[in-house]
Amino acid sequence: MWPSLWKRHKSKGFAEVDRKRIPCHIAIIMDGNGRWAHRRGLPRSLGHKAGVEALRVIVRACSQLGVKYLTVYAFSTENWRRPKEEVGVLMNLLTEYLRKELEELHGNAVVVKALGRIEELPQEAQTELFKAFERTKENPGLVLNLALNYGGRAELVEVVRKASQDIAKGVLEPEKLDEHSLSQYLYTAGMPDPDLIIRTSGEMRLSNFLLWQSAYSEIVVVPEYWPDFDEKALLQAIQTYQQRERRFGGLSKG
Ligand code: IPE
Ligand code: IPE
Ligand code: MG
Questions:
Q1: How many A from CA of 31 to the centre of ligand 3?
Q2: Which end of the chain has fewer CB atoms surrounding its CB within 10 Å, N or C?
Q3: Beta strands of 104-164 (E only): which ranges?
């Protein structure tokens, strides 16, 4: 089992986080691998490799904190525009991550899921993904959503397509369509919307991430490049989230 995070952080005087108000769903735009590498005079591929290490740490931390859902943006529908070599590196790292981590994730009760057009990923990556889904599907712990070949607009196109098919089949009445029924066609069907979206490396945009689901998410942008994002930075982001007042269009309680 993963060692206790609280014990370690208490002793080091890390961020003051209220353990009773941990966000249920955290989503992360893991950005800045390339710049992290560039700053060190390294190839971008080594930035991505270091990014996988950060992912390991953050998955473990979220599991220990009692976060129920962690969604990580690993590859966007637009990332295919990068050089073929870089796309290859990213796909290989994904395959390798799943191969190496599956048993540890399973041993810690994590459920592995994916959001995105998985069927367009290289065969090897798909094979490891399906193995991971199968192995972890009954687990009671953290749900780890890997956003892979994910695009918020592509997701909404699929929602419309599937809903129209159901209308044509007569299983869905257009008059009965509402936000709840439509959300059942999203990749995240049945999951709560993210409470907190963290973006690393200082960029203040969503880059096509969770367009529907982010409607009322609190967004925390941190300056660290993704490979430098550690438990301490995570706790800091959660603390920032806990200081926000979520109004959902209503009025302030105070
Ligand atoms: C995030 O880091 C990883 C992916 C998008 C796959 P980047 O590769 O975008 O790093 P920067 O933004 O160029 O620094
Ligand atoms: C968003 O980062 C996608 C992922 C983190 C996977 P990008 O680096 O691709 O986003 P832009 O191009 O800076 O908007
Ligand atoms: Mg980037």
A1: 5
A2: C
A3: 111-115, 143-150
User: What residues act catalytically?
Assistant: 31, 79
Q: Give residue 247 CA to ligand 3 midpoint distance, Å.
A: 31
> 118: exposed, middle or buried (C-beta count within 10 Å: 0-12, 13-18, 19+)?
middle
Closest ligand, as measured to the CA of 199: 2
The number of the ligand 2 atom at minimal distance from the alpha carbon of 205 is 14
74 CA: nearest ligand 2 atom: 6
Q: What distance in Å separates the CA atoms of residue 168 and residue 78, rounded to the nearest whole number? A: 31
Domain architecture of the chain: domains with CATH: 21-151+193-242 (3.40.1180.10)
State the Cα–Cα distance between residues 158 and 188, nearest whole angstrom: 12
Distances in Å between the alpha carbon of 36 and those of 32, 54, 129, 246? 6, 12, 27, 33
pLDDT tens readout for residues 143-183: 999 999 999 999 999 999 999 999 999 999 999 999 999 99
